TrEMBL record:
Domain of life of the native organism: Bacteria
Protein name according to UniProt: Lipoprotein
Length: 765
């Protein structure tokens, strides 16, 4: 037997669901002492769909009085009654007349004077939108006989409650304007045979939400109103659903009954394209219109389901808790009605498909569910499988099975990140040092695996964290002069697994492009062997360690540059740079003068003041003044046009001697311009003979439009790019037979050669 129900729908569908709770009075039978008579008073919560739906403070009783009338006149007021628990007792001194009980209101009256007919016309007035949460009850005492009489009386709530529900299966909802308009502020204290309102009652609008304080979720008890017969009552609502704005002006039921819950439901069915605005009345009186039995919602049938390890059915059988790992399962759902699965929220990353039944529907349906692995850092997700009952037009919020997907207890921070369904992270560039930090539960460990033939370019560095957890820094390494560092893709698989037995593997791939420049070590610095060329930031334009011409020739760079064809020498020698573009300028024959093509004397950005890595490929940088000083900064002049040895002003870790050789090229030309006596200088520490010397070469600086790169009768006044926020640097000034090292950073417009160094790296393999 369904209880009497009315439903009003505001489209999208935006609906007003009326759920009568005329059965929410309940009585308790109590025994009394022999020879006494008493009134047993009880009250109950609001009910929705036949079930209690209490909200905090709704059932509170702060005052309680009884009023006995005989022959139409008030004879006695019983006060005060003790208040406590869910039932109240009133000893009766006379079993005649009519007894009225009122909670939370104290109407004006006088014993022996107040007439019952006037009493029943008592009017209440709301105080600034706040109606009193009062209860009334009535008992006929006449004819009650016996030594021990217990008279039950059930209090009836005097107000109605409005709830607001949002039924939008997917996306976001924001109700920015919401008002119930023309709400009556006055009502009769006692119910009548029909819903009625006092003559000329005052009405006002009640604001529920504004753009500054929008509603975004279900809200119970948004408004309490007096019982009223009010054809002017309406709701005004403006909502944004998935970025689209909808507005509604909809009349509410003209009769609002006390002791009743009304639900205003904003609904957008997933199968609808746009909004609709309709009002329908369902189940009037004892009609047999079809609507669902919401007291029997769908439930999980654990016995008929195929659940994986770690999955748990909730105590109420209305949901399943799933582990963070990958899951494939069969969920059996029991329901009296056949169910149609609605589209699942895509953000939950679930695949759900109904499994075909065999024969007639027998109260159970099965669904295959696939869930991917949640990677480290993925928080828990709660999602709903929503159903429409076969033959029903609308979707009800009760028809749902909740899936709670556990988050991964491991965490990941840093540049390395994974997402649900994406367990490979490709930097698609060269990168080294720390990629990320995994923080794992104590029972987990992190390992790294490679395909056959791949280098061990990843190092896992354990670090200390709080007790109960372990952490690993993931370090990408670098190999000096790696002959395979041609830009190929390097990959590794990071595996999280149980420390005890290696089970429950989670695999995550990390990749990078492996590039490297030829280098040599001197006094703690890995210096690049060649000057930058072309686009200084691009590995593709540089001499790579996989294609080092000197290595291929079996020579040092000094030997190679001294003996290679002039065209090969010129291609390495001709590059210089200005400003922050990183675009190399090439020496050309400009009307008989060797000059840099594209030179601009108005450049204002000083290369030396840029960040160290501003012009370099990933993992490399301009050497600092301190780096250069480990080779150049001597106690006396360093005359580089001669072979010799100089002593460092500040020895590096006790090593102070630097040896040098110089050589000239006289066979290089550009266009019709000869470029004679181009200098090459190699320098090394005699304390580290195992390392190849650093070889210096390059085009002289250009600082005006007229001279090009020709100064003092030669092309060897080289200005080096040096990282120096102060703008200092190193320069080779002087005539061709008097060249020396000099601290001079030059001006912003002056071009310079760029010789990079390897940036600091934690792991070398």
């Amino acid at each position: 037997m369904f209880m009497k129900t009315r439903l009003y729908i505001i489209g999208l569908l935006c609906s007003l669901l009326f759920i009568s709770s005329c059965s929410d009075r309940w009585e308790q039978e109590e025994t009394v002492s022999s020879g006494t008579a008493e009134l047993c008073i009880s009250r109950a919560s609001f009910q929705v769909a036949g079930k209690p739906s209490p909200l905090p403070g709704e059932d509170e009783i702060t005052s309680l009085r009884a009023y006995r009338f005989e022959e139409g006149v008030l004879q006695k007021v019983y006060e005060p009654l003790s208040v406590g628990g869910d039932d109240y007792r009133l000893p009766l001194d006379r079993l005649s007349g009519t007894l009225y009980v009122i909670a939370n209101e104290e109407p004006v009256c006088e014993e022996g004077t107040t007439k019952e007919t006037d009493w029943l016309q008592t009017v209440l007035t709301a105080d600034q939108h706040q109606v009193s949460n009062y209860f009334t009850g009535k008992a006929d005492l006449s004819g009650k006989m016996g030594k021990a009489v217990s008279i039950p009386l059930a209090l009836t709530r005097g107000v109605a409650r409005f709830d607001f529900r949002i039924e939008v299966p997917e996306g976001t909802v924001s109700v920015k304007r919401f008002a119930v308009k023309q709400v009556a502020r006055q009502a009769y204290l006692f119910p009548g045979d029909a819903v009625r309102s006092p003559e000329g009652t005052v009405k006002e609008d009640c604001i529920i939400s504004t753009p500054d304080a929008p509603l975004t979720r279900d809200s119970l008890g948004i408004l309490y109103v007096y019982e009223q017969a009010n054809p002017d009552l309406s709701v005004s609502l403006e909502a944004e659903i998935n970025g689209k704005v909808y507005a509604f002006e909809q009349p509410l039921p003209s009769d609002i009954r006390r002791n009743t819950v009304y639900a205003i439901v904003l609904r957008k069915d997933v199968l609808q394209v746009d909004a609709q605005l309709t009002v329908e009345a369902w189940g009037e009186g004892d009609s047999t219109a079809a609507y669902p039995d919401l007291t029997a919602p769908p439930q999980v049938d654990a016995a008929a389901s195929e659940l994986p390890a770690g999955a748990e059915v909730t105590a109420g059988k209305d949901g399943v808790n799933l582990p963070y790992g990958p899951v494939e399962m069969v969920l059996a759902v029991a329901c009296d009605d056949e169910l149609e699965l609605l589209p699942v929220d895509a953000s939950a990353s679930l695949e759900v498909e109904p499994l075909a039944g065999q024969g007639l529907f027998e109260g159970r349906q099965r669904f295959r569910i696939r869930k991917p692995l949640f990677p480290p850092g993925q928080p828990p997700v709660e999602t709903a499988l929503r159903f429409r009952r076969k033959g029903m037009q609308y979707v009800y919020p009760e028809d749902v099975i909740t899936l709670r997907l556990a988050g991964n207890p491991s965490r990941l921070s840093g540049k390395l990140q994974y997402a649900v369904g994406t367990y490979a992270f490709d930097f698609d560039r060269y990168i080294d040092n720390e990629l990320g930090v995994f923080t794992l539960p104590a029972e987990k460990e992190l390992t790294v695996e490679y395909e056959a033939g791949e280098d061990a370019w990843i190092k896992l560095d354990p670090v200390s964290v709080r007790s109960g957890e372990g952490a690993y820094r993931v370090l990408a390494g670098w190999r000096p002069n790696d002959v395979t560092a041609n830009g190929r893709r390097q990959s590794a698989t990071l595996v999280i697994r149980n420390r005890a037995d290696g089970s429950q593997r989670e695999e995550y791939t990390v990749s990078r492009r492996n590039y490297g420049l030829p280098v040599t070590w001197m006094h703690g610095i890995w210096w690049c062997k060649y000057n930058a060329r072309g686009d200084s930031r691009s590995f593709e334009d540089q001499v790579l360690s996989s294609d080092d011409p000197a290595r291929r020739a079996g020579q040092t760079v000094f030997e190679y540059l001294g003996a290679c064809p002039p065209e090969a020498f010129f291609d390495l020698w001709k590059w210089a740079y200005q400003g922050d573009s990183g675009t190399g300028l090439q020496v050309i024959d400009k009307n008989g003068t060797a000059a840099l093509d594209g030179y601009n004397h108005q450049v204002s950005v000083h290369i030396n003041r840029l960040p160290a890595d501003a012009l370099a490929p990933e993992g490399y940088e301009l050497p600092s003044m301190e780096d250069f000083n480990r080779i150049f900064d001597a106690t006396d002049y360093v005359w580089v046009m001669w072979n010799g040895t100089h002593t460092l002003r500040t020895p590096w870790e006790g090593h102070s001697q630097v040896k040098r050789l110089q050589k000239r090229r006289n066979d290089v030309t550009v266009g019709n311009v000869a470029l004679p006596s181009l200098i090459l200088i190699e320098m090394w520490s005699p304390d580290f003979p195992e390392h190849e010397p650093v070889t210096w070469y390059g085009v002289a600086s250009q600082w005006n439009d007229s001279e090009g790169v020709f100064h003092n009768g030669h092309y060897n006044n080289i200005l080096f790019g040096v990282h120096s926020p102060e703008g200092t640097g190193w320069f080779i000034p002087g005539k061709n037979d008097a060249l020396y090292l000099h601290k001079n950073g030059g001006a912003a417009k002056d071009t310079r050669v760029l010789r990079f160094r390897k940036s600091e790296v934690e792991y070398m393999y």
